[in-house]
Design a protein that fits this description.
Layout (H helix, E strand, L loop, with lengths): L2 E5 L5 E9 L15 E8 L2 E5 L2 E5 L3 E5 L5 E3 L8 E8 L4 E4 L1 H12 L7 E5 L1 E3 L4 H14 L6 H27 L3 H16 L7 H7 L4 H11 L4 H19 L4 H7 L5 H12 L3 H7 L26
Antiparallel strand pairs: 1-9, 1-10, 2-8, 3-6, 3-8, 4-5, 4-7, 6-11
Helix pairs in contact: 2-3, 2-7, 5-6, 7-10
């Protein structure tokens, strides 16, 4: 496994982005980028990519980093309807490639909350703990670059925030994998997965604790130790992230979304949403109306895109 690091005190430069939906038996073409990086995040189905003699299967929530100068290509076809987000960017600071021998010291640095870290750190491949927030960033970026008021500055800062979120999730997941013994670690991941899968049910701290034979207090201590937040805040964060997806991707009313996510009533949902996001659900929906599938963006100041987004390429 290789790891990529660069400083973002000067933001990354957005190049292009989109969401790709595969035709039946679509296979990723062979490419080698000259300067830009690409991040692929699985949305549906599986995408099969070979890079640096390593085969990767990108499933929903998986993140694959494709750096410049290294050829990559599809080694197997994907099923019709499989899809993924993709985004290309350029770096404005020196770039470093790290190995497994370097990574432990880097993780310690990134985990130190007393220091301000102005870098990002990404592995070639990892799985998100929670795909909600990265997906929201991607949709916001697509909205910005497809709007008449598009500016490079807005896209660059959103892109940088998106990659910071990926870095934080990678650091958290790596730290979790090293902490405690394997049994405790696996059980905590099982808890996170249980909450994610059941985010549209009537979840509470008590129901999760009972499911895994913890007391509510013990469970909350476990969450604060590993994620730095309480069990309830984690549950609410996932529910609000799911609500944001529904607000952007569906025509469901606020009341219907409240019902889907098992909030006790519409007013409570609206109050909680504003507490977490700073705006009401309606204001959030109105702020990001434009996302596009299979979009292609080309900046005239940059080279001709290496990666096209026509369906079935």
């Amino acid at each position: 496994m290789k790891y990529f690091k660069t400083n973002i005190s000067t933001p990354l430069s957005f190049f292009k982005a989109g969401q790709f939906i595969c035709d039946n038996n679509w296979t990723h073409k062979a490419f080698k980028f000259e300067k830009d990086y690409e991040i692929i995040i699985g949305v549906k189905g599986s995408i099969y990519i070979m890079q640096d003699n390593e085969k990767y299967v990108v499933n929903p929530g998986d993140v694959l980093l494709l750096p410049p100068k290294i050829p990559h290509y599809g080694y197997a076809p994907s099923k019709e309807g499989s899809s993924f987000f993709w985004i290309h960017f350029l770096c404005n600071s020196e770039e470093y490639t790290l190995t497994n021998q370097d990574i432990y010291n880097e993780i310690v640095e990134f985990s130190d909350k007393t220091k301000v870290n102005e870098s990002i750190l990404l592995p070639t491949f990892f799985s998100l703990i929670d795909s909600g927030k990265p997906f929201i960033y991607l949709k916001q970026i697509l909205h910005i670059v497809n709007s008449p008021y598009y500016t490079h500055l807005a896209a660059n800062f959103l892109l940088s925030a998106f990659v910071v979120e990926l870095t934080q999730q990678f650091v958290n997941s790596f730290t979790l994998s090293q902490k405690n013994n394997g049994i405790v670690n696996k059980k905590f991941f099982d808890i996170l997965e249980f909450i994610r899968v059941n985010v549209t049910t009537e979840l509470s701290v008590h129901t999760v604790a009972n499911k895994f034979n913890f007391t509510p207090d013990h469970l909350t201590r476990l969450f604060k130790k590993n994620l730095g937040i309480s069990t309830l805040k984690y549950i609410n964060t996932l529910k609000i992230n799911k609500a944001k997806e529904l607000l952007i991707n569906s025509d469901k009313t606020i009341k219907e979304i409240s019902y889907i996510l098992c909030f006790k009533d519409e007013k409570y949902f609206m109050k909680l949403f504003k507490m977490y996001e700073g705006v009401t659900p309606s204001q959030y929906r109105d702020a990001y109306p434009k996302t596009y599938i299979n979009t292609e963006y080309s900046d005239p100041e940059l080279p001709i895109p290496f990666y096209l987004t026509q369906k079935g390429q």
